[in-house]
Task: inverse folding
């Protein structure tokens, strides 16, 4: 095929910049249009998560484009969840029984800037900032833009247009509004929203609390989390209902009330946050939602990727990792079909179809898991049976690193297993263990021998397989 075909990518965020880099490396001529200013020259973090959890699926993508050695210095390892109780006592709950498995806190801006630099360094990739996509004529492969600098509208034609323009995607809006084909779309909001706050560094530039963990203050109906930054600060996020409960975003309207709320529920965090009131009233409160839609592509002309195709809530730390994995999976399909692309649109249609067919069930799975994890983080981390399950899983992972992985490990650290398989097996394991603990089929205690653990593992495996089989049979009958 002639690689001089031009590709347009709408959106230069994390997914768009990685996709541009990869397609550029493959020899395509790529134009990226981003509506915001160049984040390398201006600070535009307003209301966006400042740091994100970066784990094995994201790492796999960085290896694909050859930049992992540049990304790792931007990372702070988090070995577990530091759970803060209401008295301010803490306990570190590791993410895995395997020492080498941990997640990383990384700056969204830092990573995005690095990917933009790498993509721009290729002579076949051009990035335009301050260009807002107003609509996409997907029938003819033409994208319409508004250029902020001279207030002009213009259009550009391309062989293929990729929409990586996030949860509020302009291209997805065009699919939806044009009604040219049957397009399904759902957007479900949680009744909770979030607000970014911060713990500033010490005067010496150090960390005010333990650096290598994701801190969680779980309080049933709401919670606070904190992730470390390289400059000694922590980005703190409050997840709280908009209108229910004694304290909610709608009634936290005075300085006194905000302080009272924190004194009551997050006393130890408040002590580290003299800047709380300023942050609270300066930073926006944002909604949390899940976007699912189909189809992602229209013929061989256009396709949605990343959050534009499947935005998820942040409770599994997989939003960015899932978008990065999109690029890895798309790259595999390109490897397989690159020869077909010489037939122009029909070739791209083959690629888009196959990519969506193999990827959609995985992005649906991680969306559902992220909602599950919301309940787990704000409620269950404090429940006894849940803690007993976690303790047992840690012990199994430690003793039998090759034979057992918790649901969290399957999703976060097993990048060779698809999200859908990780969800199916993980949910079945959870059900098996919780049932057997509740029915006293298995009892756990500190200092169990390897032999005792092996017997438990055997029971867990048999029970898990039984549940997976039952679910499979139920699904087949249902269809």
Result:
């Amino acid at each position: 095929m002639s690689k001089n075909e031009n590709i347009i990518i709408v959106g230069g965020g994390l997914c768009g910049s990685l996709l541009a880099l990869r397609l550029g490396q493959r020899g395509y001529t790529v134009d990226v249009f981003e509506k915001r200013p160049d984040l390398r020259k201006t600070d535009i973090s307003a209301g966006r998560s400042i740091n994100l959890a970066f784990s094995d699926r994201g790492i796999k993508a960085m290896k694909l484009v050859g930049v992992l050695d540049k990304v790792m210095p931007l990372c702070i390892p988090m070995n577990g969840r530091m759970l803060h109780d209401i008295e301010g006592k803490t306990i570190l709950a590791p993410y895995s029984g395997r020492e080498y498995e941990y997640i990383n806190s990384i700056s969204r801006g830092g990573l995005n800037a690095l990917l933009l630099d790498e993509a721009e360094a290729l002579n076949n990739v051009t990035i335009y900032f301050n260009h807002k996509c107003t609509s996409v004529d997907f029938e003819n492969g033409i994208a319409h833009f508004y250029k902020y600098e001279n207030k002009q509208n213009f259009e550009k034609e391309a062989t293929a247009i990729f929409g990586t323009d996030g949860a509020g995607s302009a291209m997805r809006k065009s699919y939806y509004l044009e009604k040219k084909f049957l397009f399904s779309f759902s957007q479900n909001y949680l009744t909770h929203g979030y607000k970014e706050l911060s713990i500033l560094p010490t005067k010496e530039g150090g960390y005010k609390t333990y650096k290598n963990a994701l801190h969680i203050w779980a309080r049933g109906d709401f919670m606070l989390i904190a992730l470390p930054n390289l400059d000694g600060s922590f980005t703190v996020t409050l997840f709280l209902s908009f209108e229910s409960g004694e304290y909610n975003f709608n009634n936290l309207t005075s300085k006194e009330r905000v302080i009272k709320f924190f004194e009551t529920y997050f006393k130890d965090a408040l002590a580290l946050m003299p800047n709380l009131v300023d942050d609270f009233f300066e930073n926006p409160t944002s909604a949390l939602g899940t976007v699912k839609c189909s189809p992602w592509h229209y013929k061989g002309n256009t396709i949605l990727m990343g959050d534009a195709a499947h935005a998820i809530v942040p409770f599994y730390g997989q939003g960015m990792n899932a978008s990065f994995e999109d690029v890895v999976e798309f790259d595999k399909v390109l490897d397989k079909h690159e020869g077909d692309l010489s037939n122009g649109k029909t070739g791209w249609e083959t690629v888009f179809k196959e990519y969506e067919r193999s990827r959609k069930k995985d992005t649906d799975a991680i969306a559902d898991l992220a909602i599950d994890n919301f309940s787990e983080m704000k409620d269950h981390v404090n429940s006894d049976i849940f803690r007993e399950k976690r303790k047992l899983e840690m012990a199994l992972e430690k003793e039998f690193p090759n034979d057992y992985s918790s649901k969290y490990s399957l999703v976060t650290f097993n990048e060779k297993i698809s999200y859908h398989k990780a969800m199916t097996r993980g949910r079945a394991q959870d059900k098996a263990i919780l049932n057997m603990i509740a029915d006293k089929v298995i009892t756990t205690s500190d200092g169990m021998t390897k032999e005792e653990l092996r017997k438990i593992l055997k029971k867990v495996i048999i029970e898990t397989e039984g549940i997976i089989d039952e679910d499979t049979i139920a699904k087949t009958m249902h269809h």
